[in-house]
Amino acid sequence: MKMRHLKLTVAYDGTAYGGWQLQPNAMTVQEVLETALAKIAGHHVRVHGSGRTDAGVHARAQVANCSFATKLSPHVIRSALNANLPQDIRVLQVQEVDAKFHARFSANGKEYRYQIDCGAVADPFLRGYVWHHTKPLDLTAMRQAARLFKGRHDFSALSANPLRPVENRVRTISKLTIGRSGRVLTITVRADGFLYKMVRSIVGALVKAGEGKSNVEQLRALMRAKKRTAFIETAPARGLFLWRVFY
Q1: Which of 5, 54, 103, 139 could in theory staple to 65 by disulfide, Cβ–Cβ 3.0 to 4.6 A?
Q2: What is residue 141's three-state secondary structure?
Q3: What pLDDT sits at residue 164?
Q4: Angle at 79 between CA 76 and CA 85, to 5 degrees
Q5: 129: Cβ contacts below 8 Å, ≥ 6 apart
Q6: Which CATH architecture has domain 3-96?
Q7: Which conformational region is residue 242 in: left (phi greater than 0), alpha (psi within -120 to 50 degrees), or beta?
Q8: pLDDT tens digits for 202-233?
Q9: 3-96 and 109-246 share one fold
């Protein structure tokens, strides 16, 4: 049988999982996907994701890659995977790729979207996918703050300490927009890479500006200090979606 190198595009509701990455004490999306692949391949198949998503974070289009010997076509593999996956995880696409392709190392950018429910009363049908925030938010102030974060900066102040040290904390944000549709605010962030909890920290900073509890000068000073402080709140995981990975 021919060794096939595959690119998987995966959507998932992260509510029930301890994140993407394999963990000893929690069920993860990677573990469930590898279990489904083992049933098709007849042996364990390691899956490599484009990056980790934290517990409770969702993905519209996470990308992963794997390799195993099979006669099955990508279309059949997709159908077989979805038949063996829970309903909160779906493989949207399976593509055959070059052996050199790696979901993480071949990527040149990602887009995340964060949703905030601004309704006076929480919508029970949105509760797993938004941060319900009842205090009024000034969109003009939030957009002014967002302009501060666009471009190439050291984002040490807007990230949490990862399990593994990161030497380079400089990232380039090419897109940072705030839109509103009805009661839901959507913050879209596109960059060449992200630090641990960087998007949720950016959202926390923007919300603080929207509440009038911080201003551009305070946030600029925070960025220059390159140090995380309790001044910035990390937004809840449930409102965050990995929206797209760029190659």
Answers
A1: 103
A2: helix
A3: 61
A4: 140
A5: 58, 115, 238, 239, 241
A6: 2-Layer Sandwich (3.30)
A7: beta
A8: 999 999 999 999 999 999 999 999 988 888 89
A9: yes
Name the token pair of 36: 């489904």
Domain range 109-246, CATH class: alpha beta
> What does the pLDDT average to over 50-61?
96
For the chain, give percent helix, strand, coil, nearest 5: 25, 30, 40
In whole angstroms, give the CA distance from residue 188 to residue 140. 16
Q: Dig out the tokens for 220 from the structure.
A: 């600029």
pLDDT tens for each residue of 63-103: 999 999 999 999 999 999 999 999 999 999 999 999 999 99
* Two tokens, residue 201: 């920290």
- DSSP assigned state of 176: E
Catalytic positions: 54
Cα dihedral sign, 150-151-153-155: positive
Structure tokens at 105: 């190392």
- Whole-number Å distance between alpha carbons of 177 and 80: 38
User: What is the rounded distance in angstroms from the CA atom of residue 145 to the CA atom of residue 220?
Assistant: 9
Condensed to tens digits (0 to 9), the pLDDT of residues 167-190 reads 789 999 999 999 999 999 999 999
Two tokens, residue 14: 């992260």
What are the structural domain ranges in the chain? 3-96, 109-246
| Amino acid 9: pLDDT | 98
